[in-house]
Amino acid sequence: MKPETKVGSTVPKASTSTAKDAGNSAPASKALEIPPDNEFEKCTRPEVIPASEIDVTFKDIGALDDIKESLQELVMLPLRRPDLFKGGLLKPCRGILLFGRPGTGKTMLAKAIANEAGASFVNVLMSTITSKWFGEDEKNVYLWLVLKHEF
User: Fold this and answer.
1) Does the keyword Cell membrane apply (predicted)?
2) Which CATH number belongs to the domain containing residue 89 in this structure?
3) Residue 97 is part of which domain span?
């Protein structure tokens, strides 16, 4: 969690802003409008980025042209042309797994897809899912899936 972020705060800090911060004010995110229900939600809420705050596009990503084209076909085509997938002959994909070494652009591609689709981006970290206690991993995955329906 970022030290300067207050999770669950419903009142923006307007009294402490300075003139230099006035030009950089971002719209209040939906994550800060609704108070968290439990401790898990309080810890994971900063990982949800609303669509209006994502500033990555496919034009920002250099190279990876084959992958960008595949993602456009797999994700964006069913959203733009759902009529192509209603006949039963074509079916949209149910999910995509981006894998590879660190620093290869997986997160940037996911943010570009979310930006283009107008969807929120949720950065799920393994440290928020895994636990040393039996059954906690399944509970945390379930809580992530429940939390995603709120946004």
Assistant:
1) no
2) 3.40.50.300
3) 52-120
Flag whether 39 is in a domain.
Answer: no
pLDDT in tens, 2-15: 344 333 333 333 33
pTM above the 0.70 mark? no
57-89 per-position pLDDT tens digit:
999 998 899 999 999 999 999 989 988 888 878
H/E stretch holding 48 reads: strand 48-49
Answer yes or no: do 110 and 147 share one domain.
no
Q: What are phi and psi of 48, to 5 degrees?
A: -95, 120
Residue 7 lies in a domain: no
Cβ-in-10-Å burial (0-12, 13-18, 19+) of 135 comes to exposed
Please give the single-letter amino acid code of residue 56: V
